[in-house]
Hints:
Strands 6-5-4-3-2-1-7-8 form an 8-stranded mixed beta sheet.
Amino acid sequence: MLDTRPLLLDSDFPLITRGQLDTLQVNLGYLCNLSCTHCHVNAGPRRKELMSRGVVDLVLDYIRRKNIRILDLTGGAPEMNPHFRYLVEQARAMKVEVIDRCNLMILLEPGYEDLGAFLADNGVTITASLPCYSEANVEKQRGKGIFESSIEVLQKLNQLGYGRQESLQLNLVYNPVDLNLPPAQAGLEADYKRELDDKYGIVFNQLFTITNMPISRFGGMLLSKGLYHKYMDILKDNYAESNLATVMCRTLISVDYQGYVYDCDFNQMLKMPLLASDKPKPHLRDLLDDNLDGRLIAVGEHCYGCTAGQGSSCGGALND
């Protein structure tokens, strides 16, 4: 696969600094039951990288010491890590909000039949990938039959109370197709809610629109088709300085499956380690006694993806 990393490291993107840390985003490994074209992690069924129990316990120790309010679990399919349920239970016991970034299909896999009930019993927020409410667009990104199965899972989650009970938040994620930026989040959310309710009786809380990043699998596709520079021009032409104040890296750090720390999930994939440390490649254990407030954030060309148009973060649009 072609790699955009050498093109992204040298950038004129503005310097930004950290605010107060409140979110720990943890990648539990690159193993996944799907292989999506827009995946910036290059996850899939053949990946072997998984976070160990020792690193999971270090994550919990960091949460206790730093009074982290939100634990954001990602992958791959984070649920495929054998320590996923232990981590969720321990974090919830500390009254930490846990977000599971779920591809929905995992709930239909053998051995995961009770996963939805587990998530509901523990009050886990589900942020689920559904790239579009159109079957054709979803299958273009994620494969044939994925849309129909996604609808089945969403209906089951509604039956468990997700999207209906205040304590069981169900959020959906939209990714654009091809070289497009996401449309206005509020308007698209209204379209999603109307279409999914009218056609399938599905309800959910919020829609998050996320710009596709020119890295890993999506970046390789851009290079292979000669579209990388065209896409970067789109991102830069739509840069909005106002988005700098609320980019997610100001209040979040990203931890990889080995415990190494980055300013965000995208930097993790580009092997751009956290700058807010005296270590060249800081590990979570190195930061147990450090205060990261006010430290510089590592930036690159891909940061234009978070600041283009209405802005983009793991929590959706920054300005809408």
